[in-house]
Amino acid sequence: MGRNEEARLKRLDREQENSFINNKTLDQCFNPIKARDNLDRDTVIEALNYRSEEAPLKRLDREQEQEALISAWRLESDMIHDSSFTSSKALKFGTIAFRQSLNLQSSFKLALRQIDMENNHKSDSRGALIVLEGLDRSGKTSQSSRLLSYLEGLNHSVESWRFPDRNTGVGQMISSYLANESQLDDHTIHLLFSANRWEKRSLMETKLRSGTTLIVDRYSFSGVAFSSAKGLDIEWCKAPEIGLLAPDLVLYLDIPPEKAAERGGYGGERYEQLEFQRKVAHSYQILRDASWKTVDAGLPLDDVEKQLREMVLDCVTTCQKGKVLSKLWST
Questions:
Q1: Which of 26, 1, 102, 116 is nearest to 59 (CA)?
Q2: Rounded percentage of the chain residues whose pLDDT exceeds 70
Q3: Residue 208: predicted pLDDT
């Protein structure tokens, strides 16, 4: 390098050096990390800012840092204005920058892990899938409506669903069957009930992940309980339900079949027969798992609602804090 060029470099004013230090620190010190881990500049900045709030980053002292950065600036200038730059300069800068990057890598990677953990936790925050089950005329529809109003009053995003969904093509076939307007083989109607739930599975997941809680009147447990009560193998009945979303809470409204039969409107649909309902109640007992809570549905409506409110609000809060969606009856 000629004397004129050396003189030019010596005349670098402090403003230029500071500008280089401020604008090039991340690029020069973290390029090796970014290239290896395929990170963008914004991620690097986020990690640095995050870590700096917890503890100061380990750095070379200020004079060494400025020396490394100014050397890099001069090296960059040499490459632009003079195609001949010495390997010793490149080696000198590379050594300093490498030492600095080693000091920062452990703190940087720790910050990234902490950010990932927090982001994953936030991404698991969602609405709750709450299912009401029970015999016909146990009060599921009434309590679903009450719970919907209760959560709306607390400004929660919530919707009330019901299976079978009789608005779909499959649902209309089921509705006709339940009203004794058509006849279908027991295996066929069971698969139609299952298909009706699968029709809504994608929308259900979208709603839950967006933060909407779903209060569902009947779900897969009803399908299995009613079909197995007809004599179908219970494991066969469960098979087409595997892979649907698992409820966060199942509220079983427990009432003796005889008491349910005394309620208004009983007997209007195919399955509302006392002896058959007894078999359904037995099948429900087999299906119970840790997600189930049982409430005495023979109590006054207000008393039942009070118990359900506490269970539901606790479940909704848990899901909002972060809970992974799971699949029904999947090992």
A1: 102
A2: 63
A3: 98
**Is residue 284 domain-resident?**
yes
User: Which range of residues forms the domain containing residue 242?
Assistant: 129-163+206-328
DSSP helix/strand/coil, 273: coil
Q: What is the pLDDT of residues 32-58, one digit of tens each?
A: 444 444 555 555 555 545 444 444 444
CATH of residue 136's domain is: 3.40.50.300
Look at residue 287 and tell me if it is in a domain: yes
Residue 13 has pLDDT above 60, yes or no: no
Which of the listed ranges 32-36, 102-106, 314-318 does the model predict with the highest average pLDDT? 314-318
Enter the tokens of residue 79. Answer: 């490459």
Count structural domains, the chain.
1
Q: Tokens 């609602």 — which residue?
A: 305
Residue 269 in any domain: the answer is: yes
Asked whether residue 111 is domain-assigned, the answer is no
Radius of gyration of the chain (CA): 33
Cis peptide preceding 56, ω within 30 of 0: no
Q: Are 218 and 271 a contacting pair, CB within 8 Å? A: no
Write the secondary structure of 234-283 as one string of H (helix), E (strand) and C (coil): HHHHHHHHCCCECCCEEEEEECCHHHHHCCCCCCCCCCCCHHHHHHHHHH
- Give pLDDT, residue 172: 95
Q: What is the largest CA-CA distance in the chain?
A: 107
Arithmetic mean of pLDDT, 127-152: 97
